[in-house]
Amino acid sequence: MNKNIAIGHLASAAAYIIFGINVVVCRDIATDGGLEPIVLFAMRSLVAGFLFWLAAAFTPREHVPPKDLLKLAGAGVLGLFLPQLTFLHAIAHTTPVDLSVMSTTTPIFTMFVAAIFLKEPITWKKSLGVALSFGGILWLILQSTFGGNGASETEPVGILYCFANYIVFALYLGTCRPLIARYSVVTSMKWMFLASFLLSVPFALPHLPQSDFAAVPGYVWWEIGFMIFFSTFIAYYLIPIGQQRIRPTLVSMYGYLQPIIAIAVAIWTGMDRLTVTKLLAALLVFTGVWVVNQSRAAAAPK
């Protein structure tokens, strides 16, 4: 493995470790912060965008033609606005363990997107893996929805937001790699975050008068700080580094670190519990993922 590819793997792994911690952090923010998801996203994109524009002042300037500016704005919608907004809605209606197990389907969605747009083949092993993974997800959904475990469990609306999140982020990973590869990470991210923030403003403004920022607990502000700096600025700096160096399917495969980290942190903090049903569902999902990863196409050079 050459140095360039190794950097891509390390960057992807680090980003998804941060995302795993972020699942538990955002659960606190969503339930105890008292702020609407769109307001949180506007804050997130404003501060992270400012940091990327600040970083751009210390890096070589790149010319981006108007055609690519429009494409970067579209990438901002697929890679930032829709995924982050649906995630903030999802985490308010799901448990960290359930959300983390369901997040493992992202590489499967990415596989389909890459097959359509990048012509990556779908083999019989991939098809079998998809069937196994979706079997595990379906079981988890049925148990969470109809298992009678009380209001603290995952709600159907949370599941819908989860899958919306995974689909749009898979579209981002599977379609935007050629665009992201043309420019430095800072150049791509500064324009994507600017577009995302401008898009969020009309939706966030009506909620600002009802937002009681003074009532937000101190520890939640620390968690919001983690979400903005690490889960947004640092993680979204690392993801394009991975995108530029390894294939979209491989980048998304590092998403399997996210549930491991999130589940461990959620159980350690007492926020969630790992039941036999969830463990078996996770086993089915991971088995399906392993089968997909064993496909010769998955191991093919980029």
Q: How many separate structural domains?
A: 1
Weakly predicted, low-confidence segments: 148-152, 296-302
Counted beta strands: 0
Q: Overall 3D geometry?
A: globular
- Strand pairing plus helix content: what structural class? mainly alpha
As a percent range, the share of helical residues equals: over 70%
Characterize the main sheet.
none
**What count of helical segments does DSSP give?**
13
From N to C, what is the helix and strand string? HHHHHHHHHHHHH
Q: Measured on Cα atoms, how large is the radius of gyration?
A: 19 Å
Strand content: under 5%
Structure characterization notes:
This protein is an all-alpha fold. It has one domain. It is 75% helix and 0% strand. The chain is built from 13 helices and no strands. The radius of gyration is 19 Å and the shape is globular. The two termini are 12 Å apart. The relative contact order is 0.24. The C terminus is likely disordered.
Question: Keyphrases for this structure?
Answer:
single chain, 302 residues, mainly alpha, globular, disordered C terminus
Compact description:
The protein is built from 13 helices and no strands.
Structural topology:
Blueprint: H1 3-32, H2 37-56, H3 66-91, H4 96-103, H5 106-117, H6 124-146, H7 156-175, H8 177-180, H9 185-204, H10 218-245, H11 248-253, H12 257-268, H13 276-293
